[in-house]
Amino acid sequence: MIQLHDVTLTYSLHPAVHHLSGSFASGELTAITGPNGAGKSTLLKGIMGELPLATGTLTWGGIARREVAYLPQTVAFDRTFPMTVADTVLLGGWHWSGGFGAVTEALAERARAALALVKLEGFEGRNLEALSAGQFQRVLFARLILREARVILLDEPFAAIDERTTRVLQGLIRRWREEGRTVIAVLHDLEQIREHFPQTLLLAREKIAWGDTAAVLSADNLRRARDMAERWDDRAPICAREDAHARGAA
Fold first, then answer.
1. What is the pLDDT of residues 150-184, one digit of tens each?
2. What value does the mean pLDDT take over residues 11-15?
3. Cβ atoms within 10 Å of 65's Cβ, excluding its own
4. Separation between Cα atoms, residue 193 and residue 35, nearest integer Å
5. pTM of structure
6. Which residue has the higher pLDDT, 120 or 66?
7. For a pLDDT cut of 70, what percent of the chain falls above it?
8. Residue 24, SS3?
9. Engineered SS bond to 150: which of 61, 67, 73, 79, CB 3.0-4.6 Å?
10. Domain limits of the chain?
């Protein structure tokens, strides 16, 4: 579905993701993992178009951008703003209601059903600031449900949340797979990946391995990823190909 060919993503010409080629399988759960600073979150930003490609191409295989949902690791959301759980979830339906469209009873019912799926029945009227970190993450997943996206990108969706919330969200992700949706998630917990994600991209700025999780997360591949991380300095060297590309564009 999503195909990358020779994709490089840079910050001031220093590569964060370096000449990456491969494809994310349609209707599959794929984890992106690797050492800290490996370019995992950067890759999601590149896929979403938030960071321009320094080199290479990315194709969507007929998927429209409105069919893609993205939950960043750090959500820019002021939880002190006086907004209820129901209002937050309903933001996921703006593609259906429009920016100034009225909330129909059908849409409101879908929002209640989404909250039920994440085990937050009866939370509709609560303010966001009254929620725990895990409850707030479940609200954001309920908002994703309303999007009805074909492709869902998640950046560290289980970070700093309780075990119960993790189980609830893992169950929702399995449901998305059963519905034929494509889920791509940045994760660090290798046991979690082995248990729930059949496909994995192991990244250390460059691709270490990409494919079946059991094969990708081999001891040899993990060692190679660690070795590459240990050789990093604070700023990866400028790649000559990107530098030449930039001079040509200028």
1. 999 999 999 989 999 999 999 999 999 999 999 99
2. 82
3. 9
4. 14
5. 0.89
6. 120
7. 88
8. strand
9. 67
10. 1-63+151-156+179-250
Cα 117 to Cα 1, 108, 120, 146, distances in angstroms: 27, 14, 8, 11
Beta-carbon contacts of residue 63 (< 8 Å; ≥ 6 apart): 1, 2, 150, 151
Q: Terminus-to-terminus CA distance in the chain, angstroms?
A: 33
CA distance linking residue 48 with residue 71, whole number of Å = 11
Contact 217, 48 (CB under 8 A): no
The helices-and-strands tally (H runs, E runs) of the chain is: 10, 9
Q: Give me the CATH code for the 1-63+151-156+179-250 domain, please.
A: 3.40.50.300
Q: Rounded to an integer, what distance in angstroms lies between the CA atom of residue 60 and that of residue 30?
A: 16
How many angstroms separate the Cα of 127 from the Cα of each of 79, 131, 141? 8, 7, 17
Pull the structure tokens for residue 124: 């509709």
CA dihedral 171, 167, 218, 223 (to 10 degrees): 140
Q: What is the predicted pLDDT for the residue at 228?
A: 87
Q: How far apart are CA 64 and CA 31, in angstroms?
A: 22
- CB-neighbour burial class of residue 78 (10 A; exposed 0-12, middle 13-18, buried 19+): exposed
DSSP code for 231: T
- pLDDT at position 250 is 44
Res. 3 pLDDT band, cuts 50 70 90: very high
DSSP string, 164-189: HHHHHHHHHHHHHHHTT-EEEEE---
- Are the beta carbons of 123 and 134 closer than 8 angstroms? no
Distance, CA of 45 to CA of 67 (rounded, Å)? 16
Amino acid at 236: A
* Comparison of pLDDT for 98 and 14, the residue scoring more: 14
Give the separation between CA 99 and CA 211, rounded to whole angstroms. 40
